[in-house]
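Try it yourself: sequence plus magnesium ion, in.
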Amino acid sequence: MKLDGVEIVHIRMPLVGAFRTSFGTEAVRETLLLRAVAGDVEGWGECGASESPLYSGEYTHGAAEVLARHLIPALSAVPEIDAHGVAPALSAFKENRLAKAALETAILDADLTSRGAPLSYALGAVRDRVACGVSVGIADSIPELLDDVEGYLADGYLRIKLKIEPGWDVEPVRAVRERFGDIMLQVDANASYERSDIDHLLALDDFGLSLVEQPLPADDLLGHAMLARRLSAPICLDESILSARAAATAIELGACRIVNIKPGRVGGYLEARRIHDLCAAHGVPVWCGGMLETGVGRAANVALAALPGFTMPGDTSASARYFAEDLTEPFVLDDGHLAVPTGPGIGVAPDPDRLAAVTVARQWIPLR
Ligand code: OSB
Ligand code: MG
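Structure, out:
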């Protein structure tokens, strides 16, 4: 495949409700869509970055800059590119995984579209629908949190993930468990605790949680292993797992028993697939995380979540949980599940009018 170029489309889309985590509040999804063009074929990828570098060091304007200045131009050195050639062509550039993932995904979509193959098939999916959970932000009060959770359970979500942080942990978890009984319940701290909080975190074991996600800093695998020896609930890692190698290390150290796979965080769907395979070989369950994606990113996440090792419900929620109007045909929850797209590539494309309405800037980077 010969690429003509890649367009960077900078978008801003209001969320239906502000999403509060330990690292900040996001009310508008501000990110990039990439459109790779090769002759009459095009492919789309969505960047996981947001306006500020609060989840990782990447942020939307920085991702656009590194893509325009370094990552996209580096592809001109490869005369015939396919999806598997992207990561090697970018490997000299350190970090910037969210940006690299978006670029690889756009080319993967174009590549698979030209071959007529769905992403789910290319990755090895075994299901045509995936079980969905929902990530519930920190609320202003426990009654408001209970209202939020009640709404999501009424929608049919199969598990609830509560965002926690120091000062918003045991009491909200207790309130949700007491009010809603035997639901599948888990928490995500986004690295907001320290090793000195380990005794406090053990109190979470009173609530039968399915997992505790990323309690400690991303680089503290040993701290997670120390906590894991004392906590009954399994630890799941998100921010710590940047590659298959990091996953292998975390598993070997006993730092986690479950892995959240977010394709953006690990540099793309191909590395995500390798992490899935590694975890499956170790008997470690995985589930698909999310970065508040539009339908473009969601389509690809749902394809990944259909692989056999994804045995827990993902943060692959329906379009309506995020946006009043999605960029693609909306993903609609049916009996707690989303259908895996069946078309070639990621199986969706943004509606041109909808996209135009949320676009704040576009930049075309020619490759020939
Ligand atoms: O830690 O999983 C996380 C959103 C943005 C950044 C980090 C995280 C999240 C979520 C929401 O939890 C997942 C989603 O619904 O997309
Ligand atoms: Mg997380």
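One thing you can check immediately is this: Residues 97-115 form the longest helix (19 residues).
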